[in-house]
Amino acid sequence: MRTVAVSINKGGVGKTTVAKSLAVEAARAGFNVVILDVDTQQNAADWGARRKGVGTPLPLIARFVTEKDLEAELQHAAKAGCDLAFIDTPPGRSSEAVAAVELADLVLIPFENDQDSYTGVTRTAQLARRLGKPAYGILNKAPPHSRSHEDTAREVLKAIDLPLAPVALHRYDAHRLANPAGVVASELEPASVPALQIEGLWNWLSAQLQLTASAPVHKKGAA
Fold this sequence. Notes:
Elements: E1 2-6, H1 15-28, E2 33-37, H2 43-51, E3 60-64, H3 67-79, E4 84-88, H4 95-103, E5 106-111, H5 115-130, E6 135-139, H6 148-159, H7 173-178, H8 185-188, H9 193-208
Parallel strand pairs: 1-4, 1-5, 2-3, 2-4, 5-6
């Protein structure tokens, strides 16, 4: 099982949206996936509860866990046949975020094009570097049809020696509208621009994790 921590030392940048959108893409590709939500706001876990009975079931579970139980939950998921785990972390400096990065194989750092985000990116990148974990920035909520945000992000992350994911996510209402229904943008609006962006991000991530897109769904799942 591969584990991805979605973390940044800042709130409101779309960590949960990134985690659940990529988790759905992974499940649609045939992987058993779990989202472990260590944020006490439990946004990912609540979204997972809303998914029950929505459309065609996917091999995807989202649930809240405490920092104390995180490692044991990851071990349980691996034994249950889970292929991929996403850890959704709380905003700001927290022991939960440190634990998530420490247990991850790879760290995704979503951020917006503003100074507070770049401060958070720098701190989270330093944490990942200190723990010896590969990390990548993901520009999120960029205005559609605007290259300036991507150009600025590329320059800032180059200066702090943090690789930038090759796919930026733009600000589209589909992400917001999908949430109350317990789905993600790619399910609400298939073949839309936000859906294609998430698909591209997933294709890149699966390559980083050396996952194959033809993996069979394990019958026992990550219960």
